[in-house]
Amino acid sequence: MSVVEQLKGQLHAVAQEADQGAAGLGGFQNKFSQASQHVQSLIQGSATGADREIAEVLDAASKSLASAVESLQIASHKCGQYAQQL
Question: Which end of the chain is less congested by CB atoms within 10 angstroms, N or C?
Answer without folding.
Answer: N
